[in-house]
Amino acid sequence: MISEVVDAARLKGVRLEPVSGIRPDIMAQAFPFIGHFAIWLATRKRRRQRTGMIALLEQGKPAGVEDLNALIDAPVNRHLVEMVHEIEQRKRPITPANLAELA
């Protein structure tokens, strides 16, 4: 998953910012498990922080996932977009357990 984001960012000329001091591009070069674990660990410090997309979904509003993910044609991203649409249609709950499907 991290490698898809890094690859897409490189193709589009996007400079990735560190997440809690960890550079996603460096993590994508590590073993995939280590990279995913490092990002997971960094986000554990910010449990109460919500992305704009999550805030919209929690309010029952469309998340605009197409705007954020339309240019990335990769397997994990396609599945993520499907999951967000299911949440918007109330066919799927918002829960961290959804992430297991993306692994």
Describe this structure in words.
- The protein has 103 residues and is an all-alpha fold.
- It folds into two domains: 1-49, no CATH class; 50-103, no CATH class.
- Helix content is 54%, strand content 0%.
- It has helices spanning 2-12, 24-29, 32-44, 52-58, 65-69, 75-88.
- The longest helix is centred in the C-terminal third of the chain and has 14 residues, at 75-88.
- It is globular.
- 11% of the residues are buried.
- The model has no long low-confidence stretch (mean pLDDT 80).
**What is the helical fraction, as a range of percent?**
40-55%
Structural class: mainly alpha
Mean pLDDT: 80
* Discrete helix count: 6
Rg (CA only): 14 Å
Strand content: under 5%
Shape: globular
Task: Provide the descriptors you would attach to this structure in a database record.
mainly alpha; single chain
Short summary of the structure?
The chain has 103 residues and is mainly α.
Helices and strands, with pairings:
Layout: H1 2-12, H2 24-29, H3 32-44, H4 52-58, H5 65-69, H6 75-88
